[in-house]
Design the sequence.
């Protein structure tokens, strides 16, 4: 297929290359020309503006930082909705607020376009290796149209419901991840203070009811599991500032439906404090430093 891909950062780069590997013609655009040139040399067709990247493609995919970028890219005069083919399928993969995708979606659908939200889980490794999990919101028909393309970039592609439902899943999921990481960090700090060997604590708790995905994959303590960023001075992985963004999205979503999520709110405050210390570019599991320092 002819695909236009917008946003070639940590995630978008690997996703676009996996589409090339699967045999698609992939035109790419990013405001960062270095990112465009890099992919141009690896089999993509580099474009110097938005208008060119969406011209005559069957599918548009975007992987951008925040809702404001998505609104710019889709709604501006040179943007996707004004210039893409009327029957183009729009696949928005960024982690953003639900209102933005619903507003952009309404405008796209009124023009006769097809659109889904398809945020991802699996990080940079998943993007590079084509093993992402996609959580998809949109009509059944649009989901089915996108399935094969999403499968070229991921190993799990799951339909969550109507437009915005993919983001609702992503936001709730990451509130679990952020709060779980803090619980892990507190427990491993306390275990050490109580005189336990942290490795022994892991050995037992990982086979008991304290076990979680975060414990098995992102343990905030070094030299116990292979995939811990603590082994690497908390080089991300998934940066703390990204977790702050996701926890902020979670609180906005909670407010929008009048639900109180005090643990999610506390996690947001702790990540804010950590990032105000200038540590936002460390992995989100480095939040353990905040707990160790206050102990
Ligand atoms: P990133 O900042 O590395 O990449 C975003 C890219 O978008 C950058 O290259 C930037 O130049 C480009 N961009 C910004 N505005 C643009 C515009 N107007 N037009 C064209 N390009 C523009 O971010 P990332 O890590 O690739 O994350 C992208 C999205 O995926 C985010 O919403 C993030 O929350 C989500 N996500 C990230 C991870 C992760 O581990 N990094 C995991 C899951 C989901």
Sequence:
């Amino acid at each position: 297929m002819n695909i236009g891909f917008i946003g070639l950062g940590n995630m978008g780069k690997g996703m676009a290359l996996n589409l090339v590997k699967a045999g698609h013609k992939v035109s790419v655009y990013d405001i960062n020309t270095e990112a465009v040139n890099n992919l141009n040399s690896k089999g993509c067709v580099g474009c110097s503006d938005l208008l060119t990247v969406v011209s005559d493609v069957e599918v548009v995919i975007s992987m951008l930082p925040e809702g404001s970028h998505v609104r710019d890219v889709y709604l501006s005069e040179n943007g996707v909705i004004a210039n893409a083919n009327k029957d183009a399928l729009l696949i928005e993969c960024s982690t953003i607020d639900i209102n933005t995708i619903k507003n952009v979606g309404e405008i796209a659908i009124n023009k006769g376009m097809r659109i889904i939200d398809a945020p991802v889980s699996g990080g940079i490794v998943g993007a590079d290796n084509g093993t992402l999990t996609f959580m998809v919101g949109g009509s059944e028909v649009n989901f089915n149209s996108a399935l094969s393309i999403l499968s070229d970039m991921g190993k799990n592609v799951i339909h969550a419901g109507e437009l915005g439902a993919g983001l609702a899943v992503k936001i709730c999921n990451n509130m679990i991840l952020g709060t779980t990481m803090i619980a892990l960090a507190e427990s491993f700090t306390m275990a050490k203070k109580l005189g336990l060997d942290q490795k022994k604590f892991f050995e037992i708790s990982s086979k008991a009811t304290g076990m979680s995905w975060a414990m098995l994959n992102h343990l905030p303590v070094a030299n116990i599991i292979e995939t811990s960023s603590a082994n690497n001075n908390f080089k991300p992985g998934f940066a703390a500032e990204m977790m702050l963004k996701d926890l902020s999205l979670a609180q906005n979503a909670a407010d929008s439906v009048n639900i109180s999520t005090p643990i999610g709110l506390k996690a947001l405050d702790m990540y804010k404090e950590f990032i105000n210390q200038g540590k936002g570019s460390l992995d989100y599991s480095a939040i353990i430093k905040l707990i160790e320092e206050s102990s």
Notes: The longest strand covers residues 154-161. The chain is about 50% helix and 15% strand. Residues 2-161 form a domain with the Rossmann fold fold (CATH 3.40.50.720).
